[in-house]
Design brief:
The protein has 136 residues and is an alpha+beta fold. 39% of the residues lie in helices and 24% in strands. It is built from 2 helices and 7 strands. The longest helix is centred in the N-terminal third of the chain and has 46 residues. The N and C termini lie far apart (97 Å).
């Protein structure tokens, strides 16, 4: 009977190792791999920053890059054009890339959307005052 119990114990230890390896594989695919991908994208975004880009810092400051140094950026923010020197790692997101979509193009996208009726677009009554007869 000793041989049967040791065989059953051996099978149980292998199955627990397989279960542990499967749990690690799932954790890697669900958590670690996407996090590394996101970190690489963020690092690439921070390395591609240039003069003229509009950014948001991790502190919530919006500004435009006016000078790029090795690991520091000088941004201009506010109506009085205050200049701040920040670390490159403090950039959270790029709002507008220099040389890309301009603010003048943005309203064109809004025009493509169906518009809500305005008082001018509402059909008016004709001179007779009959609501059945409306003009366009």
């Amino acid at each position: 009977m000793n041989t049967t119990s040791t065989a059953a114990t051996g099978i149980g230890s292998y199955s627990s190792l397989i279960l542990l390896a499967a749990m690690f594989a799932v954790m890697y695919l669900m958590i670690i791999r996407p996090q590394r991908k996101k970190e690489k994208e963020t690092e690439a975004m921070r390395n591609s920053l240039g003069v003229g880009d509009e950014i948001v810092t991790i502190g919530g400051f919006f500004g435009k890059i006016v000078r790029v140094k090795n690991d520091r950026l000088v941004i201009q923010c506010g109506a009085d054009r205050t200049r701040l020197e920040i670390a490159r790692w403090a950039v959270s997101a790029v709002v507008n890339k220099a040389g890309s979509e301009t603010k003048a193009e943005a309203p064109a996208e809004e025009e493509e959307l169906p518009s809500r009726p305005t008082p001018k677009s509402i059909k008016r009554l004709d001179k007779s005052g009959d609501p059945a007869e409306k003009t366009e």
